[in-house]
Amino acid sequence: MTPVAERRPERIVETAPAKINLALHVTGRRDDGYHLLDSLVTFAEDGDELVFETADSDSFRVVGRFGTELSQDDNLVLQARDLLRAALDAQGQPYRQVAITLDKSLPIASGIGGGSADAAAALRGLSRLWKADLPAQTLLEIAIQLGADVPMCLASTPLRARGIGEAIEKAAMPSVPLVLLNPLKPVSTPEIFRSLTRRDNAPIGEMTAAPNVSEWMKSLSVLRNDLQPRAEALVPEIAEACDLLRQSLAGFVRMSGSGATCFGLYETEAAAMKAALALSAYRPNWYVLLTRTVPGEI
């Protein structure tokens, strides 16, 4: 008798890279309450990791350093799965049950994408697992339903985002060493937006190409994160984090998103590594990550 070969589960691994707001200008507010933004965004090489495997029944498991802080019942990853399935149903395309594992290594609600990056990674990973053939516009519409940051996280490449975050265009940026520093203090994004005293700030304007990394970092210094002053008022440790990064001789320092993650860009790997080691020793209970930004081409 010829033995029947066991069918092995298909397995896809997808990274959900940290989103870094190099600049975030608040330029208005729509009638529905959504704020209009103009943001220059890059992504780190590192982030959360999601594993997708075909299975006999659906399951979702969260592990990792910050896994215990997440709900496993009402997670954006599950919402992304269900919306993608609905889109495949509408197109008459197949899908299977799936076991999902989320390794949560990025801090929760920390201004670097987090749940949005996980949801975007779910759309990418499940599309590969199910061999989905959906128009890019359909995936974009699903991403917008999941949250304003999800479209840019779906792209996960250096970009400029306008509108509420859905109007995206790729941007040319170098890959540089990056250190993330977070005091692990909770920051309420809605509270920060509510406390803004001005919502009609000037947009970023046109960005010109810089001849080298040093000049590129200098060009960023004329831009802003309009949420940072309010975030620093609510969580003073954010200002301390930025000061520590400046003392580590970062070429450019800023808070990402609504905080509390701050970041420093460096010209050399050696400088970034020295800074990460010093910051880890000085603030052992804070979150420190040494990584790089991804390169961007138009």
Indicate the CATH architecture of the largest domain: 2-Layer Sandwich
Output the structural class: alpha+beta
**What is the total domain count?**
2
What value does the average pLDDT take? Answer: 94
Largest sheet: 6 strands, mixed
CATH topology of the largest domain: Ribosomal Protein S5, domain 2
Order of helices and strands: EEEHEHHHEEEHHHHEEHE
**So what's the overall shape?**
globular
What is the count of helical runs?
9
**Percent range of helical residues:** 25-40%
Calculate Rg over CA atoms: 20 Å
Cα end-to-end separation: 59 Å
Number of strands: 10
Unreliable stretches covering 5 or more consecutive residues: 1-6
Beta content comes to 25-35%
- Determine and state the CATH class of the largest domain: Alpha Beta
Overview of this protein structure:
This protein is α+β, with helices and mostly antiparallel strands. It is 32% helix and 27% strand. Strands 1, 2, 3, 4, 5 and 6 form a six-stranded mixed β-sheet that branches. A four-stranded antiparallel β-sheet has the order 8-9-7-10. Helix 1 runs parallel beside helix 2 (115-129) and helix 1 runs antiparallel to helix 3 (136-146). The longest helix has 16 residues, at 76-91. The chain is globular and about 55 Å long. Residues 1-6 have low confidence and may be disordered. Belongs to the GHMP kinase family. IspE subfamily. GO terms for molecular function: 4-(cytidine 5'-diphospho)-2-C-methyl-D-erythritol kinase activity; ATP binding. Residues 213-282 form the GHMP kinase C-terminal domain.
